[in-house]
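User: Could you write out the 3D structure of this protein bound to iron/sulfur cluster? I've included everything you need below.
Assistant: Certainly. Input first, then the structure.
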Amino acid sequence: MNMVRLDKQKFSNFILELSAEYTVFAPGKVGGKTEFVPIRSEDEIDFKTLVTDMSPKGIFFPSSEVLYEYDKQGIRVPEKEIGKPIAVWGMRGCDSRSLLMLNKVFGSAIQMPEDEKFQDPYWKEKYDSSLIFGSACNTPLSTCFCNWFGGGPHSREGMDVFVVDAGDSFLMEPVTGKGSNFLRELTCFADSTEKDEAVAKKLASDAESSMAAPMEVTDLGERLNDLFEEAVWEEISAKCINCGACTFSCPTCHCYDIQDEGKGSRGKRIRVWDSCMFPIFTMEASGHNPRALSSQRVRQRVMHKYSYFPEKYGEFLCTGCGRCVTACPVNLDIREVLKTINAYNKQGITNG
Amino acid sequence: MGNYCIPQQMKVERIGTEDPTRTLRTYDLSFVNDSDREAFKYLPGQFCELSIPGKGESPFGIASSPTEEGFLRFTVNRTGSVTNEIHYLRNGDTIGMRGPLGNWYPVDDLKGMNVLIVGGGFAFTTLRSLLIYLMDAREDYRDITVIYGARNPDLFIYKDEIALWKQRDDIRMHLTIDKPVDGWNEKTGFVPTVVEEVAPDPENTMAIVCGPPVMIKYTLPVLTKLGFSDERIYTSLERRMKCGIGKCGRCNIGSKYICIDGPVFSMAELKNIPETV
Ligand SMILES: Cc1cc2nc3c(=O)[nH]c(=O)nc-3n(C[C@H](O)[C@H](O)[C@H](O)COP(=O)(O)OP(=O)(O)OC[C@H]3O[C@@H](n4cnc5c(N)ncnc54)[C@H](O)[C@@H]3O)c2cc1C
Ligand code: SF4
Ligand code: SF4
Ligand code: FES
């Protein structure tokens, strides 16, 4: 199936049809912050924001999620609140890629890919049946660096349908079979013309060329491994206040804690986002803490994303969305960190 | 599909006290549901998450051997909220359990070899599992040497069994305590020193080490000095855990998650990982 065109006048119709089958999430405003929220109509959608303050990971991996409830009778997994599967409108290429990364963690275990015991039912229930409408970026931000890691403003990875905002219409191109099946069922589309396709191409090349040149990252993992014991981590982490804003806003950070809430024999076990930036994250009952120092924790965050995850899964655990750059209260810019690593390596190791 | 978060229900069958201050207790558990029991297959070195509603979960090495039928054994050091609560359990109470988790000691590779078991303190749990497992097919293995250390004589776990093992002529038992005390006529000194003194022959021998981090840290180099190759030394590591299946992200050393890539690692695997112990 080729690209189709949806005139913006028909967009509210489209949302209605989509809502009939799916619970639809789209960028919206919550108390001055932008994040993905459930919507019912076009007016609730924020079309302007390019990168939402909070990433869409919370749609599939909520910041707090009940694993089960318990009482004297036993244990119950709560019924799904949302009966319908989830559709997301307006997901940027960096964010749809992040879902593929998270799916590598939650969907199965690389050590035992077939073993159901290592699949996360809470994630799979929501993610496997979802329909993702991507959203091409025509004007990338100065904090965007998706092009460092194989992404791009018109990347289609992780989307079911790729969508380009072409002014008075949306151009939609199915990426997966699921995406084309859905588009085929709807009547509100027109076939795209050669002109539409030329417009989409031009927007893509303009967006790509507006971005700064990427840093070379091919041997980043190796460099990081070489520098593990170096004092450079103290320099890098010196201003970090360990607030965790970077990890909470990050679409790929998946660390969580499991906690019990309740009184007496009634209560629930929940999982909540956690952060490797907090000292308690690794604190053991004996008082021993393998990552007691801030420099060790900052190093862990960087190593996980650019060395450990790539070693296991063959790709970086970072989409270059730039949220951590924007969110950090002390302007600790991950791009600068990686540049420091690159430069340090060159003087300290290669020439030394 | 299955749900790894949901604990199986276990019943406390027997509670033993390991030390005079009652900080260390041993629990024999049985499965409440037959289907859970049938599905539960494990090997020495694996662990489970014991789960107390309202308090949480904690990982514990399985101290029983799969060759012992009818119960699963855990020895629990009372140290925080979950372990406190476990110590309140009485016979007949139920407790949640998830597992078996993690990998195991290389039991197949031990066949036809000499086995050196080095343990410290209450971390002897999974080493007990291993020792019983080996003893239950004694003819498959050659010499078995055990070096087990504790701070003082009270802190050895499984004292009754140790007494029996000492009487056997097919295990060489070396017990050691940190400092001499009256009435103690076994070895004294830290485990690494005793390993050096006993100097087990590395020829055709596999060394399995489990204990507190300092013990592991100083024992591994001694084994290397004695001539054990990195492929012939295995150790079991610990980190704070939650999920137990490589998702919650906290128990890693380098790129390895202790809960799913471990807890058992060969020295060869640990060689390139910084900060292991
Ligand atoms: C693979 C493995 C095997 C273990 N085997 C045994 C054993 O056989 N016997 C025994 O007594 N102890 C064992 N431990 C240590 C035991 O898990 C901790 O002492 C226990 O989790 C402390 O829990 P708490 O709630 O009482 O302490 P708190 O300090 O209240 O801890 C809160 C939570 O943090 C986590 N946590 C804290 N310390 C540790 C730790 N050292 N390791 C893992 N998670 C921790 C747990 O989720 C715990 O519930 C083992 C640990 C691991 C990783
Ligand atoms: S590390 Fe920063 S740039 Fe990379 S995915 Fe996370 S928030 Fe985005
Ligand atoms: S947001 Fe900045 S200050 Fe806060 S933990 Fe992350 S790097 Fe440190
Ligand atoms: S305990 Fe969660 S990753 Fe190991």
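Chain B has nine helices and 15 strands.
User: Perfect, thank you.
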